[in-house]
Design goal:
4 helices, four-stranded antiparallel β-sheet, 13 strands, Tetrahydropterin Synthase, Chain A
């Protein structure tokens, strides 16, 4: 994961675990993935000295956050966590943050509230579907340092980041409606990668259009002058 040092906890992808514990000190622990995009943080201090069998559903990841940085990412499946202060243990001074990354993040703009590029030029309508491909980078960008993690607030931040990415990608196209329409028709989701990947996101689908079709000048058959359809 870019920008993070991952401590060696001895933990692997959950589906590699085959031996389940029978120790009385073991705590079974799971989080419902349908309870929101982000859940937590859950303080690990109350689990000091305990062994935890953490079970994550498909499309769900857990981030171990300690000293304001992501120390490890746990994928779906089962993980045995030995919580304490010793070498190789999951530090009890840390906390767990859960992300549901299996569903896409859809951002849309309609004619009532079109996407305004740099505040000028034709408004855009349509949608982009994003995915969380870098959970650690997503945490650093949208969660770290914020006091509220409700989904509506996080999606507002993601929406603004997507707008900024689109503005930079389309900057060379200018504000001419016809050129912009052609560029949008050829816009590939991967065109946004350079802007979104550092934020922990990737674009899976795009479908964007100018809110008003470009007006084309047509030569007049009578005078040879140019006229605009629909106008006298």
């Amino acid at each position: 994961m870019s920008g993070h040092h991952l401590h060696n906890t001895g933990l692997k992808h959950g589906r590699n675990w085959t031996l389940l514990p029978d120790d009385e000190a073991v705590v079974d622990w799971s989080v419902q993935p349908d309870q929101g995009l982000v859940q937590g943080p859950l303080d690990l201090e109350f689990l000091q000295g305990r062994r935890v069998l953490l079970t994550l559903e498909p499309g769900q990841v857990a981030l171990l956050v300690c000293d304001a940085s992501v120390q490890a990412v746990y994928l779906d499946g089962g993980h045995m966590l030995d919580v304490g202060h010793g070498r190789g243990q999951v530090p009890s001074r840390g906390n767990m943050v859960f992300l549901t990354i299996g569903r896409g993040l859809k951002i849309s703009w309609n004619a009532t509230a079109p996407l305004a590029m740099n505040g000028n030029g034709p408004g855009l309508i349509g949608h982009c579907t994003l995915a969380i491909d870098g959970p650690g980078r997503f945490y650093d960008t949208f969660l770290a340092g914020n006091d509220q993690w409700d989904e509506a607030f996080i999606m507002r931040l993601v929406r603004q980041a997507t707008l900024s990415a689109l503005e930079r990608v389309l900057a060379e196209t200018g504000t001419d409606s016809t050129r912009l329409q052609v560029r949008l028709a050829n816009l590939d989701p991967s065109d946004l990668d350079d802007e979104l990947v550092p934020l922990g996101l990737s674009c899976r689908t795009t479908s964007l259009y100018t809110a008003a079709p470009p007006v084309e000048a047509i030569p007049s058959e009578v005078t040879g002058q140019f006229s605009v359809p629909g106008h006298n």
